[in-house]
Design goal:
This protein is an alpha/beta fold and 722 residues long. Helices cover 39% and strands 16% of the residues. The chain has 23 helices and 20 strands. Strand 19 and strand 20 (670-672) form a beta hairpin. Helix 19 (571-588) runs antiparallel to helix 20 and helix 20 runs parallel beside helix 23 (685-715). The protein is globular. The protein binds zinc ion. Zinc ion (ZN) binds at residues 354, 364-365, 401, 430-431.
Length: 722
């Protein structure tokens, strides 16, 4: 799979970076002294020249050749391949970590409508000539990861998106779902399928069927694959229903790593393990159920894209749902490789992507894996040419992300002590490209770093700076939500971070600052067998330009964090975002019951201290490279900020989640100031006051820390003449 590099580095560099960036190449980069900036620019140019679309495509073909779900032999083979390739590329300390975790695979699944007419659901996707992989006999039927096993016959109720408010509507219509099977759709509004399952379980349903309505990801949106990006009639969105919003990772080792001999809780005591059985359906298989339903007409918003009236059901349609799962402990493999830092080997910049896919994983996650392999290849080449970053780069290929963020969570729990002192940042890429829309996210302190780079890079199709494209994307999304205000710089990088990928253990459990990167686009084949190589080449990223651009962004951000003289965190920006989080909460709750004045004043002080540190850093860097001891003190200090947001007791009710600014709702949606917000939403004002006090203390601690660091920097001017 390895071919020689043919493109000229200089030409490729000019292709990747905009004229504006070339013109401003003399300006200092954030975090770098002038002398270091020139060296850094050269390293970035050398790096950016290496990732190639042809190579990315080759990697992508390899990773998408066979289904490779977590726990499968194929996914183990791919782990071995990655380890081998990383060694060949020149990475150091390549190891494969094994975690024995609760795995999931279907043994037998069937769904039969027994009344009013008989219909055997195929639970299969139909092959398409344009995509030969769709004839692969190793593709699984539709199933839901970590579903319980069951064999049950019951009447079917249509419960819209399966959120709690939907069951209220059913109740008002006199429909009781206890003992029945609920049929819900994936979106409208979107919620994580595990939340739908837990909600159905709490409502006393006997089973859950989750289907893809064509109004959400099918023909109602536009041309379907192979003619377009949307899901064909029989596409099935597989996926786990694990309750990882309570605690992610292996359900049997909540909070500790699944190493050999680890203590395991009994499955019936595992909080994140569903007790309900379910299946995902294509609209092709859902249609016969929906069109035979009786009962009241469903509300207008519940109507979907199929050409008949949707009814609530509850009597006439009966199905037999049979699910037999193999949910046993099996190995997950996390591949880790490094480029050891030349000066600060105990500072880690971590880059990760998951490897496991429900089937071929064309977008999710093999696009990201292809981009990762080009990043590691480029760093291997830099190393060979004698360019070693100052800090250590740690590369991880995760397993079991799709089941419960499992591999990254176990690894994070395994190395929690190291990560607490060594982790500088975690840069996550799940899918790298399903289209051309750059969609970065970052904690508030790292958003400016991402935006700086987006100003320098160009969209390969339009030749516009990526930051402009990003501004247009954000403006469009806002306009669709009825907000005509043009987005400000602070609005471009998303700082509201939910769950659903491998950043979770780093940010929410360990207090490691995170960045997430992807190129997005219309993508209706998510978690179906059509998400493969052909989809990518016909629709998603023909030419693999966005795969390569993602590699460049990922690697360049890693290089900036790895080589900076003073780490480029912007805490004044963090404070501005924090102030917005508080304003949003205040706007959404009964104001009189929350006293947030002291918290607001604390945020003002945190912002002032952040600005002071920014100024002190800029002054120090303008006059030379700071003395090593001073730089080390300041850099170690700023890493404490994110850790200081952690509350050791965690969120009330889910103590694994320790971050006081960031968590996710049970739906996976972002949730800021989680402890306080949840208390306010539940109108538990005593708890809200306690959570406010926790935030006040963390903000005050961080303001004091930044003040001290700024003073330290200002009191110690760098040696003159450097
Ligand atoms: Zn993924």
């Amino acid at each position: 799979m390895i071919r020689a590099l043919r493109r000229s580095p200089v030409l490729a560099f000019l292709g990747a970076f905009s004229a504006a960036a070339a013109a401003s190449a003399g300006d200092s980069l954030s975090g770098f002294a002038t002398a270091s900036t020139a060296r850094q620019r050269a390293a970035e140019a050398a790096f950016a020249a290496i990732p190639s679309p042809e190579r990315a495509r080759d990697w992508h073909r390899h990773f998408t050749a066979e289904p490779h779900p977590a726990g499968s032999e194929r996914n183990h083979e791919l782990a071995l391949t990655i380890a081998e390739e990383w060694k060949k590329q020149g990475l150091e300390d390549v190891v494969i970590h094994r975690y024995d975790v609760l795995n999931t695979a279907p043994l037998e699944v069937s769904l039969t409508m027994v009344a009013p007419v008989r219909y055997e659901a195929s639970l299969r996707e139909e092959p398409i000539d344009a995509d030969p992989d769709t004839r692969n006999p190793r593709v699984s039927p539709g199933y839901l990861g970590l579903s319980a096993s069951a064999d049950v016959e019951a009447a079917v109720v249509y419960a819209h998106s399966g959120n709690p408010e939907d069951y209220e509507v059913l109740r008002k219509n006199g429909i009781d779902v206890r003992g029945k099977i609920v049929l819900v759709r994936y979106s409208n509004p979107y919620s994580y399928r595990g939340w739908k399952a837990l909600t159905a379980e709490r409502q006393g349903a006997a089973g859950i069927l989750i289907y893809s309505d064509p109004a959400e990801d099918g023909f109602k949106r536009g041309p379907v694959f192979p003619d377009g990006p949307w899901g064909p009639e029989s596409h099935i969105q597989r996926g786990a229903i694990t309750y990882d919003f309570i605690v992610p990772g292996d359900p049997l080792t909540p909070g500790w790593p699944s190493l050999p001999g680890a203590r395991r809780v009994k499955p019936e005591e595992a909080l994140s393990l569903p007790k309900i059985a379910g299946l995902p359906l294509s609209w092709k298989d859902a249609k016969p159920l929906l069109e035979n339903m009786d009962g009241p007409l469903a509300p207008k918003e519940w109507q979907g894209g199929l050409p008949f009236d949707y009814r609530l059901g509850g009597e006439r349609v009966r199905v037999r749902l049979k699910v037999r799962m193999d949910n046993r402990v099996a190995p997950n493999y996390v591949v880790e490789g490094r480029v050891r830092g030349s000066e600060l080997p105990d500072d880690w910049v971590i880059l990760g992507n998951h490897r496991d896919a429900w089937e071929f994983g064309g977008v999710d996650p093999s696009s990201g894996t292809a981009s990762l392999m080009e990043v590691t290849r480029a760093f291997g080449q830099l190393l060979e040419s004698g360019q070693r970053p100052r800090r250590t780069l740690v590369f991880c290929s995760w397993d079991g992300e799709e089941v419960g963020l499992t591999g990254s969570t176990e690894w994070g729990e395994n190395f929690a002590d190291d990560l607490a002192t060594k982790a500088v940042a975690y840069l996550n890429v799940d899918s790298s490209a399903s289209g051309p829309d750059f969609q970065p996210d970052a904690v508030g302190s790292l958003a400016p770093l991402v935006l700086d780079l987006a100003r320098e890079l160009q969209d390969p199709a339009t030749r516009r700076p990526l930051a402009e494209a990003l501004r247009a994307t954000v403006a469009k999304a806002r306009a669709e939500a009825g907000d005509a205000a043009p987005p400000a710089d602070d609005d471009l990088v998303d700082v509201r971070i939910g769950s659903g990928s491998d950043h979770t253990v780093f940010l929410n459990h360990l207090g490691v600052p995170t960045i997430g990167l992807t190129f997005d686009g219309p993508y209706g084949v998510y978690h179906s067998m059509y998400d493969g190589f052909a989809w990518m080449n016909r629709v998603g990223d023909p030419g693999y330009r966005y795969h390569v651009l993602l590699s460049r962004i990922w690697g360049t951000l890693a290089l900036r964090l790895a080589n900076a003289d003073l780490l480029p965190f912007d805490f004044a920006a963090y404070a501005r975002h924090l102030r917005r989080f508080v304003a949003d909460l205040d706007g959404a709750t009964e104001k009189s019951r929350l006293d947030l004045a002291r918290l607001r004043a604390g945020i003002d002080a945190f912002e002032a201290a952040g600005r002071k540190l920014n100024d002190a850093q800029a002054r120090a860097l303008a006059s030379g490279v700071p003395a090593p001891d001073l730089a080390r003190r300041v850099n170690r200090g700023v890493l404490e900020v994110e850790r200081n947001w952690l509350d050791p007791d965690g969120l009330p009710g889910r103590p694994w989640f320790k971050h006081t600014l960031y968590a996710a709702r049970y739906t996976y949606a972002h949730l800021e100031l989680p402890g306080l917000t949840e208390a306010a939403e539940e109108k538990d004002w005593d708890r809200a006051a306690r959570q406010t006090a926790i935030l006040e203390r963390a903000v005050a601690r961080n303001a004091g820390l930044l003040d001290a660091l700024a003073r330290d920097l200002s009191a110690n001017p760098p040696p003159s003449g450097r």
